[in-house]
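Anyone up for a design puzzle?
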């Protein structure tokens, strides 16, 4: 779950800053929340303040909170459950804060996965190879036996080096087709 992608168009609209500039600055600093102790609210306040838009921080935070209200696609959760029912192990590796990790568990997201790793809890974020090794170890597989799905190309950029099969997630339909091609689904 990338906390910049879904919200980015709204952030651009609020600040008037170019999307690439805003995203690049966020990506340079997201480790402060993903493996540090900063909340996403604090991170985004820092980002917009550093970019000269501090007066818009409250609007940014409100928009961020609105994004959290509808973040689970039930079709995706059903798909994850179907994959598990077919005998495959599933894991989640999310660049996220401890606070959001606790919230996701409270909402029951972890029940859909065999392994549930939050970067701030393990102290490592994607694409660090060690994060993927912790995931594969938790799943009881070696990296070459693992398919990793992410909506961010930067999280998948070390796939060849680490050894897992990458899938760039674009939408539910495309992902389902990819799983059919791999004979995971029929």
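Challenge accepted. My sequence:
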């Amino acid at each position: 779950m990338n906390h910049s992608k879904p919200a980015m168009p709204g952030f651009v609209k609020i600040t008037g800053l170019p999307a690439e500039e805003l995203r690049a600055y966020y990506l340079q600093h997201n480790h402060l929340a993903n493996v540090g102790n900063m909340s996403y609210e604090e991170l985004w306040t820092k980002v917009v303040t550093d970019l000269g838009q501090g007066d818009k921080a409250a609007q940014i935070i409100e928009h961020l909170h609105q994004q959290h209200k509808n973040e689970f696609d039930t079709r995706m959760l059903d798909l994850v459950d179907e994959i598990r029912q077919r005998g495959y192990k599933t894991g989640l590796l999310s660049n996220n804060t401890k606070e959001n990790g606790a919230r996701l568990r409270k909402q029951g997201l972890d029940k859909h996965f065999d392994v549930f790793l939050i970067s701030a809890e393990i102290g490592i974020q994607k694409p660090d190879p060690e994060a993927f090794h912790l995931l594969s170890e938790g799943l009881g597989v070696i990296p070459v036996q693992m398919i990793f799905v992410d909506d961010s190309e930067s999280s998948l950029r070390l796939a060849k080096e680490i050894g897992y099969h990458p899938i760039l997630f674009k939408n539910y339909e495309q992902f389902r087709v990819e799983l059919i091609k791999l004979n995971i689904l029929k």
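A detail worth pointing out: The longest helix spans residues 57-69.
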